[in-house]
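A quick aside before the break. I want you to see a complete sequence-to-structure record at least once, exactly as it would be stored in a machine-readable document. Don't worry about memorizing anything.
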Amino acid sequence: MLLSIYHQNLRGLKHKIDKLACSFIAKELHLCFICITEHYLMEQKLLLLSHESCHLVSNFSHKNSTGGGVCIYVRCDMIKNTSKKISHICTDKILEACAAQIFIEKFSITIVCICRATSADFDHFSNLCDLTLKYLHSLHMELVICVVILISVI
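That is the input. The structure line, written in tokens, reads:
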């Protein structure tokens, strides 16, 4: 089975929902997973985007501020999926990450979606990212990692 992953740094999903839904259900793309960084939405809004063709399996949203956030949607006909909770490692505006372990036929992979904000201290981000990946690796998982490291050029 060919697995396809679409990763997009959206900088706000609210006004791009129709475009996202069209790209996800497009038969010619055969998308299995969508990883989104900087969705700017709370979990309740992300859940509303789940429908007959895709399902939200993992996410991280800010609790007390706007912006940021990461999430993973999986095509509904995928056999099984299990969200891996890594939110205890995440820190608002430093390391935003989510992970989903997907079981397909006779193997499993873990999709990891990570984002670093432009304002984040890089050393702090790097240390938290290292902890996250070591934790997931300790669970003996095959990892597919989608990362956005935003930088300020000014």
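Two observations worth writing down. Helices lie at 17-25, 43-48, 122-138. Strands lie at 5-9, 33-37, 54-60, 70-75, 80-84, 96-104, 107-116, 143-149. We'll return to this after the break.
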